[in-house]
Amino acid sequence: MQRVLLVLCISWMVAQPIHAQRTVTGSPRITVRHPDTANAEEDCRRAISRHDLRFVGVPGYALDVPGVPDYHNRCWKTNGVKVIAGTSDVGDIAFNETARKYARRYNAELVKYLSTPRASDAKT
Length: 124
Hints:
The chain is mainly alpha-helical. It has helices spanning 2-25, 40-49, 71-75, 93-115; strands at 29-30, 55-57, 81-84. A three-stranded parallel beta sheet has the order 1-3-2.
């Protein structure tokens, strides 16, 4: 019984990073040349106006979607993600950090939009 449990635990642990990595590599990329000066909130509103409700993520060992702690459990199937080109768990650390802050601001704006009732969703 202990061996079966051990095998199941190891299988689950191995499958998690593999799934996350597939999500990162298969995701569309967006370009944010200067995330430190970019207006994440305005970029998000512009995306919403185009009906693009995907969150912004930063790839690393696994996909990080800053500001959306339940992304992998609740949002990845309904909203999806687009990752910032040029980010990773290696490389330009300063760029990665500012990109992560940009993503957090962008995602906060999107979460705020998704949590408010919209007129188009109201039943008449």
